[in-house]
Design brief:
There is one protein chain. Helices cover 51% and strands 2% of the residues. By secondary structure, the protein is mainly α. It has a two-stranded antiparallel sheet with strand order 1-4. A two-stranded antiparallel sheet has the order 2-3. The protein starts with a helix and ends with a strand. The protein has four domains: 30 residues; 136 residues, no CATH class; 79 residues; 77 residues, no CATH class.
């Protein structure tokens, strides 16, 4: 057979093979009328929908005492409480969570508001540590969602996410709303952590108590003074009251990483028997102290005009409109979280006008109403949806699966 004939036969075979492959893929992988198909969003359904709890460890009393110095952020469904999880991780050999929370709380008031969302990023990492999702590969739930964010929401909600009750990974449009839901959850955790540390200065107390503004650092000198004073007391009631008042003054500045904490705990136990720092702090949070002393954790109070002036001074350091927008959005976002019971009623018209004036003065393209509307608007922007290689914006209309050649989810654009 001539060489040219061989080449012709091979070309025909290649053409036939290509046509067969094309129709095969068209039938199985791309049904008629569908815009795009994905394999990665349809892995096998989890055998169990129960979330795996973190391994239990024995937690020493000293570790519990250190964890009690952290903010009291409660557990929600499968999402552990901050103190409990920090203590568990510390007892298991990792103090990363304790250090991350302590570092965030060490920031100054104006450090909370940046032009690059760096403070929110710190809280985001704390949430991953708290949920035990920090080691997940970010693309392990498909390329449309950050796996750490999705797994954190699953732990927060107490169950696995399943698209249409079947697929563990989200489709592009669903991932948009999931990402938006995570941002709202991040806002809440940012507020809770901020109000336990640098953000407490954002609000002024609704009442004034002698102890509300009295802070003491735990140093060698102050610890020796506490120990000496407690040694002069003879009855149990006086000792208990003494250590409660001492921790009222210490707790706003007390860090679980302070090397004197074990010695303080030992001194309290020597005075009160089997009760240490964690026990005394529990008493303080149990409602036996006057409300005005603990006002920052039960009532945010009033958005203070002097704080608005301080915020305005920092806003003037940002020159670009983009940086100004991020900064003021973060200010309003944090303030709104603390005033869920009624932004306008609690803050008051005078302070709202002062805040609006500060925004307009330092960022002429912004005002309070524009920022509030931006924070409340639904997620509908085009650039949030998945766009394929041809520039088409895809929405879900129909989803199907095919067993051959693989389990596939297909998306169809509405007519």
């Amino acid at each position: 057979m001539k060489r040219s004939s061989v080449i012709a036969v091979l070309c025909i075979l290649l053409l036939v093979t290509g046509l067969v492959f094309y129709f095969y893929k068209s039938y199985y992988a791309m049904p008629p009328g569908y815009e795009e198909c994905f394999d990665e969003i349809a892995p096998p359904r989890p055998a169990s929908l129960a979330l795996t709890p973190p391994p239990a460890v024995e937690i020493p009393a000293m570790v519990k005492a250190q964890a009690m110095l952290l903010p009291d952020i409660p557990s929600i469904k499968s999402m552990p409480g901050l103190r409990e999880e920090a203590a568990r991780q510390k007892a298991a050999g990792s103090d990363v969570l304790i250090k991350a929370v302590t570092a965030f709380r060490s920031h100054a008031f104006t450090d909370l508001f940046t032009a690059d969302d760096s403070m929110r990023q710190e809280v985001r990492e704390i949430m991953f540590l708290l949920a035990g999702t920090d080691q997940l590969a970010e693309d392990s739930r498909g390329r449309f969602i950050n796996a750490r964010e999705l797994a954190t929401m699953e732990r927060f909600g107490g169950e696995h996410y399943l698209q249409l009750g079947e697929f563990p990974n989200p489709t592009p449009p669903a991932s948009v709303h999931l990402a938006d839901a995570f941002d709202k959850m991040l806002d809440v955790y940012f507020y809770m952590l901020a109000m336990s540390g640098p953000g407490r200065e954002l609000y002024v107390p609704s009442g004034e108590g002698i102890l509300s503004g009295f802070k003491v650092e735990l140093t060698r000198k102050s610890l020796d003074q506490f120990i000496a004073e407690s040694g002069r007391l003879t009855d149990e009631a006086s000792k208990r009251a003494f250590w409660q008042n001492s921790l009222r003054m210490l707790r706003t500045t007390l860090s679980p990483l302070n090397p004197l904490v074990p010695e303080l705990d030992a001194a309290i136990r020597a005075s009160l028997g089997d009760q240490g720092i964690s026990d005394v702090l529990t008493m303080l949070e149990g409602g036996d102290e006057d409300e005005e002393i603990n006002v920052l954790t039960v009532n945010p109070g009033i958005f203070a005009p002097e704080k608005i002036a301080l915020l305005a001074d920092k806003a003037k350091t940002f020159k670009s409109p983009e940086a100004q927008t991020v900064y003021w959005t973060n200010v309003v976002r944090l303030a709104r979280q603390g005033l869920a019971a009624g932004w306008n009623d609690v803050v008051g018209t005078k302070n709202l006008l002062a805040l609006d004036g500060a925004i307009r003065e330092t960022a002429p393209h912004l005002n309070l109403k524009v920022i509030q509307e931006h924070l409340q608007e639904p997620v509908t922007t085009d650039d949030k949806y998945f766009t394929d290689k041809k520039g088409r914006r895809l929405l879900v209309e129909v989803m199907i699966t095919k067993e051959k050649p693989g389990r596939t989810v297909c998306l169809k654009r509405p007519n």
